[in-house]
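Re: that backbone. Tokens:
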């Protein structure tokens, strides 16, 4: 089948979607359920309906845009990703999978292809952990990885609950209705930028993901005693930020020393109280992100965090409390879907690299209820989660073409 992706239409959509943001361009900030996100959702709904798709959303705002196949009873072939973006992000993370998926469907419809299995574009709610502290809330609920009760306990930085926020965004209904039955999807494919440097360095235009890393995130509260930066002598101090500094470096050292390149650890948030130049920090809150494709190696780093916390607390006479937010298993992508993607690449005479994903994605959780695979395109220098995140138009169109061919092969 010779398909023609409308690259201009796709790129124009990406530009329009990036305009729904609370940051100055080229940065994009689009936190779940904020006005920018709601405008983006409304625009996406219109674009999907213009494409002839039937759009519905569930109680947590996951949005399904469906092209009905000739056999309504057949399991669905799905594709999609997320449109929420962390503060000061770029315009491609998640968006390439959503708008590339939409363009793949539009291209197939215009080519005269008619699917037997319905094809569905899925836009997941809250893939990023920014607002509620844990990522992939929409896909966790869809896959049953997170219970509705656990979701109802989530609050944002203002103390608003997920229920309050979703109701304000006019997403009603019970969270109990969100879970999809196993077998709902015949296959699910997520197109995404690599968010790493390998494809660019090796000058390979596509990556087929075989495994998605296991993410864990924790909050650490360190409490010492504050006081006057001039009056309190060094031997008398219980400086919470100095304790945090030891902990941060120990986490980094444990990840670097794991014996594998796939172990990564990041302390992305460090809140210091009271935050005055002449006042000794009495309280520090850290947010820690630890990942690996291997569960045991990842858990070694988590245990190192625990043991170092105990040692630093004793040495510095501070209290250190750790709260585990999530510790998920890695996901293996499905051989049949990997084969379908590989087949499409070969038919199009396109080279690809089999690789793991160190970023987590909604596919990590959809893999609990469906065969999944991911298709990566390069992003310049591997940059992501920053305003200079960039994917070349030809790479975006190429990934969309392979996705379209694979969706047709799976849904035909
Ligand atoms: O953090 C991640 O891996 C994803 O981009 N939320
Ligand atoms: Mn992201
Ligand atoms: Mn993403």
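Recovered sequence:
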């Amino acid at each position: 089948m010779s398909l023609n992706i409308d690259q201009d239409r796709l790129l124009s959509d990406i530009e329009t979607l990036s305009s729904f943001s609370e940051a100055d361009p080229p940065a994009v900030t689009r936190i779940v359920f904020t006005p920018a996100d709601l405008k983006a959702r409304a625009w996406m709904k219109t674009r999907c309906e213009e494409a002839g798709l039937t759009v519905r959303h569930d109680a947590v705002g996951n949005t399904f845009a469906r092209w009905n196949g000739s056999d309504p009873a057949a399991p669905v072939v799905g594709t999609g990703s997320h449109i929420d973006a962390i503060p000061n992000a770029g315009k491609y993370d998640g968006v390439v999978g959503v708008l590339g998926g939409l363009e793949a469907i539009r291209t197939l419809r215009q080519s005269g292809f008619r699917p037997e299995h319905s094809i569905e574009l899925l836009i997941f709610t809250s893939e990023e952990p920014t607002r509620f502290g844990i990522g992939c809330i929409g896909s966790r609920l869809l896959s049953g990885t997170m219970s509705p009760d656990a979701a109802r306990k989530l609050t944002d930085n203002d103390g608003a609950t997920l229920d309050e926020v979703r109701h304000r965004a006019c997403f009603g209904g019970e969270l109990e209705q969100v879970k999809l039955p196993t077998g709902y999807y015949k296959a699910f494919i997520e197109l995404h930028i690599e968010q790493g440097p390998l494809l660019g360095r090796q000058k390979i235009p596509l990556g087929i993901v075989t495994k998605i890393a296991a993410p864990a995130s924790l909050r650490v509260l360190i409490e010492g005693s504050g006081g006057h930066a001039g009056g309190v002598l060094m031997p008398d101090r219980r400086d919470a930020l100095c304790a945090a500094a030891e902990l941060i470096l120990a986490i980094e050292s444990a990840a670097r020393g794991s014996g594998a390149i796939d172990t990564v650890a990041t302390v992305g948030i460090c809140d210091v109280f009271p935050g005055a130049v002449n006042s000794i920090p009495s309280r520090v809150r850290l947010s820690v992100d630890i990942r690996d494709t291997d569960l045991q190696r990842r858990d070694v780093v988590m245990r190192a965090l625990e043991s170092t916390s105990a040692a630093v607390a004793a040495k510095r006479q501070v209290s250190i409390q750790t709260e585990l937010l999530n510790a998920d298993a890695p996901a293996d992508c499905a051989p049949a879907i990997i084969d379908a993607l590989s087949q499409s690449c070969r038919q199009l005479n396109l080279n690809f690299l089999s690789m793991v994903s160190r970023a987590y994605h909604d596919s990590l959780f959809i893999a609990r209820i469906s065969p999944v695979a991911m298709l990566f395109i390069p992003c310049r220098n591997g940059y992501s989660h920053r305003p200079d995140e960039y994917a070349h138009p030809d790479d975006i169109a190429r990934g969309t073409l392979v996705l379209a061919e694979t969706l047709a092969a799976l849904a035909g």
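The CA atoms of residues 69 and 118 lie 4 Å apart. The first helix runs from residue 7 to 18.
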